[in-house]
C-alpha cells in the first residue's frame, strides 16, 4: 500500500458527493435490510430473537397462531400508551391471526416448455455460543440454506420436494395446469415444520423462491388479458388500462409476497426468470410535460401561444392564430396514433376495439377544445373572461415566484424581483393546461350546455397528471374564468350569480390544503387587483376566499373575517387587502340568508359571500361538514351549472 497522498493536480474531489438518486437507493436498501435482514451478513449473530428483529420474508411453523396480546407485549410493558404514542385504534380487530407458512407465485409459462429450474433460499437461526469470546451469553446464529430442483411441466400437483437435505422441513410444493396452449404454474416455498412452539428455532427467515426456464430460455409470458371480473363497464375499463400499460407486462402474481421478473433482453414481452420479493421495488420514471422542441409528436405546437400575459392582451385575430395550433396538433397526433393500430411491435392487435374507442374520445376532446376557442372569439363576455383569467394567472404565477425569492432574501426590492421574474418561461401554460381550460369554457359559460345535464350526457373532466405536473394551475385558470364570467353575467341561467360560492375545492390532507390555499389566495389577490383597476366591469364587491378545516379542528366557531395587507402588483406602493372568510367559514353553518331569485337557501353566516372561493379540508369529516357538502351539492347556486369547480 502506498503512503502517498492523492495528487493535487486533479480538479475532482477525493470523495465525490453522492447524487440524490444514490442517497435514495442507499436509504431504501438500509430500510429493507433492517426489516428483512440479514443486517450482519450471511453468518450474522443477534442477541435477541430474530422474530423480534425481522418482520419481512419470514415463514412461521405450519399452523402457528399469533395472538394480539403477544404482539403487544413484545412492544413494551406499559399498559397504557403514553401521550406521545396516541390512543389505540378502536377499529383494529383484536382476534388471533394465522401467520403465513408459505410464499409463492403463479406464472404463465410458454406451452412448449417442458421444465423449470426452481431455486429456494432461506435462513434458520439457532442458539449458539458467539464467536466473540467476550460475549458469554448464548446468541442466535444465522445458518443460510439454498437448493435448486427441476420441476417438470406436467399437469397435476407438484408433490413436496426437499430443496436442501440439511433442512428437510422446508419444501417446494405447487400445481401445474393447462390454460389454452400455455402452462399456469403455481409454486410455494413451505415451512412444513409441525410444532406447538412459537420459538424462532422453527421459523424460516429471508425466504425467497425463484424459477427460470431451462438453459436460460425466456419462457415466461405476460398474464392473460384482464376483464373477467365486474360488469361490462368494469371489464371495459380493465381492458383500456391493460392497453395503456401493455408495455409493462405482469409476468407473475405473488401469494403472500411481492414478485419480480427479469425481462428478456431480446423481447421485453418475455421474461427469463421470476422470483418472490418480500420488499418489492419499482422505479417510476419522472413524468413531465413534453415540449415541441424535444418531442417529435408535438412539432405542430411550435406556433402555439402559451404566454399568459400575451393571451390576456392580444386581439382576436392573434388569439385565433395562437390557439388553433393546439387543435391541429392534437388531431394530427390522433391520426398518427390511429395508424399505429396493427403495426408490428405496437401490441395492439388484441386491443383494437379499445384503441379506436380511445381515439373517438380524443376526437371529441379536440372538438371541445375547438368549441372553446370559437366561444372566446365569438362571445365578447367569454373573451373578456378569458383575458381576465390569463391576466390573473400571469400575476399569480409571477408573484408566487417573487414571494419565494423574497423568502430567501427579504432585503430584495419587490419591484426589481418582479421585473426579473416576469418573463415568458415563468408565465406560460403547458399545452395540456391550456387544453383543459379551453375544453371546459363552453359548459362554464352556458348553464344550459348539454355537458351540464344531470343524466348520462353529463361530463366531468378528470385531470390526470403526477404531482408537480401543473394540475393546480389548470384548474386555477378555470377558477379565474368562473369568477369573471359570473361578474359579467350576474343573471347567469336565471340565477343570482353575483353572490354565493363560485368554486368549491376539497382536499383530504391538511399540509396539502395549506399549500393549495396559499396558491389559491394568490390567485384571488390577482383577481382583486384586476377588479380594482376596472370596477365598472368587474363590480364593487371584492373577491374573497375562505377555508373550512373540519369540525374536529380547533376554532370552528364563527369569528370576524381576517384582514391582512401585502404588496401585490408590479408597481411600488401597490397594496391589496387579502380578504378571507374566518376559519369556520359560512359554508359550514346553517343557512340564514335565502336567494329568492334562485329559490334555494345559501349559507351566508355571519355575512354575505359574493363571488368567493371556498376551500374545504377535513381529514375526518364531521357530520356537520357532511351535511354542508350535501347541501352545497343540492344548491343550484353551487352546482356545476353555475360554474362550481370541485377538486
Q: Can you walk through the features of this model?
A:
A hairpin with a 7-residue loop joins strand 17 and strand 18. The strands form six sheets. Strands 1-6-5-10-14-13 form a six-stranded antiparallel sheet, with no helix packed on it. Strands 4, 7, 8, 9, 11 and 12 form a six-stranded antiparallel sheet that branches. By secondary structure, it is an alpha+beta fold. The chain is elongated. The chain is built from 14 helices and 21 strands. Residues 1-8, 71-88, 562-611 and 616-647 have low confidence and may be disordered. The chain folds into two domains: 102-277, no CATH class; 296-642, no CATH class.
**Rg result:** 32 Å
Biggest sheet details: 6 strands, antiparallel
Query: Mean pLDDT, nearest integer?
Result: 80
Percent of residues in β-strands: 15-25%
Query: What proportion of the residues is helical, as a percent range?
Result: 25-40%
Gross morphology is elongated
The largest beta-sheet arranges its strands as 1-6-5-10-14-13
Helical segment count: 14
- The number of distinct β-strands equals 21
First-to-last CA distance: 64 Å
Structural class designation: alpha+beta
Amino acid at each position: 500500500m502506498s503512503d502517498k497522498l492523492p495528487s493535487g493536480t486533479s480538479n475532482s474531489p477525493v470523495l465525490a458527493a453522492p447524487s440524490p438518486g444514490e442517497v435514495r437507493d442507499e436509504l431504501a436498501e438500509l430500510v429493507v435490510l433492517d426489516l428483512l435482514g440479514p443486517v450482519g451478513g450471511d453468518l450474522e449473530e443477534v442477541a435477541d430473537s430474530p422474530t423480534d428483529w425481522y418482520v419481512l420474508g419470514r415463514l412461521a411453523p405450519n399452523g402457528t397462531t399469533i395472538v394480539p396480546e403477544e404482539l403487544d407485549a413484545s412492544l413494551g410493558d406499559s399498559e397504557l400508551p403514553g401521550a406521545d404514542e396516541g390512543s389505540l385504534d378502536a377499529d383494529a380487530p383484536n382476534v388471533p391471526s394465522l401467520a403465513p407458512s408459505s410464499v409463492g407465485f403463479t406464472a404463465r409459462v410458454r406451452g412448449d416448455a417442458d421444465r423449470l429450474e426452481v431455486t429456494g433460499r432461506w435462513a434458520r437461526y439457532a442458539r449458539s455460543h458467539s464467536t466473540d469470546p467476550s460475549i458469554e451469553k448464548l446468541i442466535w446464529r444465522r445458518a443460510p440454506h439454498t437448493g435448486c430442483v427441476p420441476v417438470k411441466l406436467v399437469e397435476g400437483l407438484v408433490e413436496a420436494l426437499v430443496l436442501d437435505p440439511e433442512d428437510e422441513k422446508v419444501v417446494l410444493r405447487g400445481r401445474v395446469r393447462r390454460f389454452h396452449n400455455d402452462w399456469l404454474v403455481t409454486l410455494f416455498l413451505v415451512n412444513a415444520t409441525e410444532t406447538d412452539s412459537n420459538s424462532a428455532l422453527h421459523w424460516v427467515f429471508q425466504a425467497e423462491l425463484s424459477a427460470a426456464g431451462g438453459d436460460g430460455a425466456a419462457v415466461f409470458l405476460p398474464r392473460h388479458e384482464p376483464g373477467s371480473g365486474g360488469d361490462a363497464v368494469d371489464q371495459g375499463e380493465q381492458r383500456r388500462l391493460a392497453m395503456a400499460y401493455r408495455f409493462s407486462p405482469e409476468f407473475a402474481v405473488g401469494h403472500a409476497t411481492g414478485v419480480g421478473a427479469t425481462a428478456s433482453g431480446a423481447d421485453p414481452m418475455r421474461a427469463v426468470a421470476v422470483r418472490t420479493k418480500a420488499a418489492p421495488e419499482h422505479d417510476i420514471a419522472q413524468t413531465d410535460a413534453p415540449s415541441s422542441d424535444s418531442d417529435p409528436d408535438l412539432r405542430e405546437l411550435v406556433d402555439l401561444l402559451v404566454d399568459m400575459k400575451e393571451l390576456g392582451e392580444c386581439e382576436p385575430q392573434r388569439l385565433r392564430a395562437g390557439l388553433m395550433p393546439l387543435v391541429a396538433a392534437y388531431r394530427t397526433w390522433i391520426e398518427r396514433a390511429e395508424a399505429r393500430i396493427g403495426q408490428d411491435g405496437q401490441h395492439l392487435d388484441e386491443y383494437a376495439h379499445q384503441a379506436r374507442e380511445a381515439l373517438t374520445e380524443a376526437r371529441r376532446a379536440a372538438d371541445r377544445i375547438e368549441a372553446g376557442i370559437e366561444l372566446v372569439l365569438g362571445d365578447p363576455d367569454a373573451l373578456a373572461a378569458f383575458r381576465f383569467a390569463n391576466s390573473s394567472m400571469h400575476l399569480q404565477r409571477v408573484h408566487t415566484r417573487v414571494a419565494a425569492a423574497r423568502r430567501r432574501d427579504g432585503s430584495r426590492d419587490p419591484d426589481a424581483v418582479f421585473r426579473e421574474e416576469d418573463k415568458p418561461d415563468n408565465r406560460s401554460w403547458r399545452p395540456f393546461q391550456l387544453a383543459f381550460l379551453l375544453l371546459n369554457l363552453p359548459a362554464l359559460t352556458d348553464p344550459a350546455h348539454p355537458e351540464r345535464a344531470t343524466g348520462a350526457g353529463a361530463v366531468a373532466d378528470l385531470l390526470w397528471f403526477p404531482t408537480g405536473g401543473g394540475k393546480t394551475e389548470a384548474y386555477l385558470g378555470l377558477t379565474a374564468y368562473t369568477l369573471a364570467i359570473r361578474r359579467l353575467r350576474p343573471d347567469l341561467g336565471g340565477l343570482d350569480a353575483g353572490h354565493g360560492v363560485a368554486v368549491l375545492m376539497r382536499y383530504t390532507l391538511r399540509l396539502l390544503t395549506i399549500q393549495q390555499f396559499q396558491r389559491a389566495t394568490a390567485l384571488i389577490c390577482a383577481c382583486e387587483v384586476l377588479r380594482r383597476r376596472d370596477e365598472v366591469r368587474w363590480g364593487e364587491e371584492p373577491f374573497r376566499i375562505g377555508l373550512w378545516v373540519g369540525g374536529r379542528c380547533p376554532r370552528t366557531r364563527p369569528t370576524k373575517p381576517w384582514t391582512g395587507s401585502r404588496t401585490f402588483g408590479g408597481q411600488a406602493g401597490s397594496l391589496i387587502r387579502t380578504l378571507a372568510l374566518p376559519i369556520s367559514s359560512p359554508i359550514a353553518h346553517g343557512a340564514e340568508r335565502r336567494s329568492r331569485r334562485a329559490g334555494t337557501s345559501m349559507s351566508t353566516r355571519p355575512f354575505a359571500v359574493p363571488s368567493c372561493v371556498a376551500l374545504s379540508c377535513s381529514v375526518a369529516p364531521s357530520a356537520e361538514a357532511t351535511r354542508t357538502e350535501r347541501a352545497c351539492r343540492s344548491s343550484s347556486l353551487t352546482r356545476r351549472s353555475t360554474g362550481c369547480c370541485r377538486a
